[in-house]
Amino acid sequence: MNPVGIRGHTSCDNPVTPGTHILDNYPFACGLQQILPSDKSKGHSEVEVYAYIQPNGSWCWSNAGLIVNKAAQTSVLVDTLTDERLTRNMLSAMAHLLETNPLQTLLHTHADIDHVYGDNLVLNNVSEVLVSEGSAHMLNNLAPPAVYSVLQHLGHALWYLFFEADHTLRPAFMWVMEATVSLPSLRNFLLQSAGAARAIEFFSPFRFDQVTFTRSTLAPELVTVFAPDRTVVSMGGNMVVEVIQTPPAHSEGDTIVVVPSARVAFTGDLLFLGTSPIMWHGPAQNFVAALDLLATLEVDYFVPGHGPITDMKAVQDSREYWIMVQESSAHCLKHSIGYEMCAQEVLRSLPPPFNTWGDQERILVNIWVEMGHLNATKYNTTFKVGPTDKVAQLLRMGCHLVRQHL
Fold this sequence. Notes:
By secondary structure, this protein is an alpha/beta fold. It contains eleven helices and twelve strands.
């Protein structure tokens, strides 16, 4: 039986954001999709590449991948998913491939929870876990799933009670909000509480109470930290995988995984599609540099961290988004506009295609992080997003959405 209010989705059949750039041969649909070789591919008879796609790409609906080395009869798994139920579904979809090409390596694009929390289901089957130095640091500081589970139960219960139940307390909440106009401290407390519940609601589809992976369950002898910049890793036979660690943008461990013979690149969360990207490290110029690097790769298809299999157009659109973040933040800093007002102004005037993407409230975080870096440069200091900062920014987004809901 599910805990009260926790949905615990068993499938990723979520509605897709209208206007998402979707390729004809690769629908934005839940499940395993083989990325077929193009005429330019070399040696593709020995290598097969698959993407496991989870619509709609919003909070924690991440993607993963499988690289099958038919010559050596082994496979490389690129990332796991947010919880073990979804990861188990993914592994079941891959079972017919893994039966004759068992897993040899788990390779992480970065170490956010939606890319590693399913690891325990495969750690006994792989001989190594390949990560960047930044991802290794992220794994060492990974929050235990119990933290998310407790917050999830509390937050979803409050949100359900006030806004989603058949007989909600929303009218009472609205009355109290109106009655406390002359009591800003109390009114702000109520808004912050509702905002916290709304932010936690982002994660309600997932079963953190069933996640068994923690930083202590990953045996150190399994972990291989690859060299900075570019590393070519031999996977047996003629198959090689190129791993490229970029300057920190989305996270400190951002890594691109390239399968040259199949002309495919797994981008991790350097690329989102159908939903707005988010920057937990930055600055935005690192996103732009990473996307410029993606544009130079000799590949035909990209598997984003969130969203459908895609092409160069998505890379170009994402690059334009981060240029907008850079320019807007610099303008606001120059004119002494605070990050809150700056972000709200940008949000109100988002141009296409950004105004068709999901999770547009993430611009609040992206402007805050970018202005933080710009201020740090101005005053010759450093800027870093810590765990409490992430909580505060999730709260900001939650409060923004509550204001829209009222």
